[in-house]
Amino acid sequence: MTTSVYDFVCETITGESKPLHDYQGKVLLIVNTASRCGLTPQLKGLEKLYKQYSNKGLEILGFPCNQFAKQDPGSNEQIQAFCELKYGVSFPMFAKIDVNGADTHPLFGLLKMNAPGVMGSHKIKWNFTKFLISPKGEVIKRYAPATSPKKIESDINQLLKTT
């Protein structure tokens, strides 16, 4: 039975298998991303957090998703190029996945179960839903799509201080 984010192996955006236990002991911010969303500029804020805190133990993991108004229709290669060229994304990006429905990626199934949304909903409502994970692999908090990366910074700082 999968009980921790560290139990998963995910496909990177370049097609390699990446065991998430490689991130054990780090604070994780896991985000479902999209390239053509009104919230896409959050990639810039996420990259800023990553640059500021990655050497202190933060990892941001981006998972593109095309389930919301088809706002990430490109291939993994196109998504990667867009994120790097337009927003300078250097944090790890993974292959496009589903976050809701019958084909929900098991990682997001675990995240949603451990951090329900508004009124206990287990669905993800939109792109850029964010999940904060402790260095022990515990799902700490879920953030709404409109919550800016800057507003998450104090929670990240708090977790980094406890490591």
Structural features:
single chain; 163 residues; alpha+beta; Glutaredoxin; 4-stranded mixed beta sheet; two-stranded antiparallel ribbon; 4 helices; 6 strands; 18% strand; globular
Commentary on this structure:
It is a single chain. This protein has 163 residues and is an alpha+beta fold. It has one domain: Glutaredoxin. It is 28% helix and 18% strand. Helix 1 packs parallel to helix 4 (149-161). The radius of gyration is 14 Å and the shape is globular. The mean pLDDT is 93.
Topology:
Elements: E1 9-11, E2 17-19, E3 27-33, H1 42-53, E4 58-64, H2 76-87, H3 106-114, E5 130-133, E6 139-143, H4 149-161
Parallel strand pairs: 3-4
Antiparallel strand pairs: 1-2, 3-5, 5-6
**At CATH's second level, what is the architecture?**
3-Layer(aba) Sandwich
- The beta-strand count equals 6
Q: Span between N and C termini? A: 26 Å
- Output the helix-strand order: EEEHEHHEEH
- Stretches with pLDDT under 50, minimum 5 residues: none
Sheet of most strands: 4 strands, mixed
Quick summary of this structure?
With 163 residues, this protein is of the alpha+beta class. It contains four helices and six strands.
